Amino acid sequence: MSHAASARSTFRCAVAVAGTALLATTFAGCASRPQVSGDWAQGASHQGFSRVMVVGLSPDLDSRCPFERFMVAQIRALGTAAIMSCEVMDPPTPLTREALEKAVVAQKADAVIATKLVNQSWDTKTGGTMDTRGGGEYKAVGSGWATGYYGVYGIPVVYAEFETLPSVTELQGKVSVQTRVFSVAGPALVYEMDTTVGDITSTGGGLYQITEPIAKHLERAGLLQ
After folding, report:
1. What is the pLDDT of residues 184-221, one digit of tens each?
2. Alpha helices of 28-155 — where are they, by DSSP H?
3. What's the pTM value of the predicted model, to 2 decimals?
4. What's the gap between Cα 26 and its chain centre?
5. Which candidate, 75, 69, 153, places its Cα nearest to that of 111?
């Protein structure tokens, strides 16, 4: 690459871009390749969904709503109808199962796609939280989506504790998040996936870098119709 081309590439990575349509171009080549893995839940029926409710699991609307907006844009770009939970829940907080279920019924969603944006471990058996920001890496790991600390649709059982947890969208560097897909019928957990993205340098860039590989993986897995 020539010196001029290298300078232009560096400039593109530094410019803040507001529109999600431009983010794909702006951040291409600005971060390491995302790592995504996922699998169907044990006993789950392999199925696709045509109208999904997107939930960013964070008590902070300033973190939750922008994430959902980016995630919805990515899913819609792939041809599937998607709805932001923070726009249709009344009120949008606190994030309770009852409020989300009401919104799901009103919007006639057939699935809920929930991404955990806080650092509380999903698995109560492991105890405590995992927050390795001191080492330049942030992880949200564990299991137990339907039991323990997190209930159906990944909604926290004890909201008072949930309110104190920091959001992954406030961080920079290397970020790992978990996404779970729940069929409204049941409801039931049908798919689990983990996404790790490195070299996040800004909120807008980070939101695109996280949501784009999640949406593409969901499509490849046959979860989006």
Report:
1. 998 999 999 999 888 777 667 778 888 999 999 999 99
2. 61-77, 85-88, 97-107
3. 0.75
4. 21
5. 153
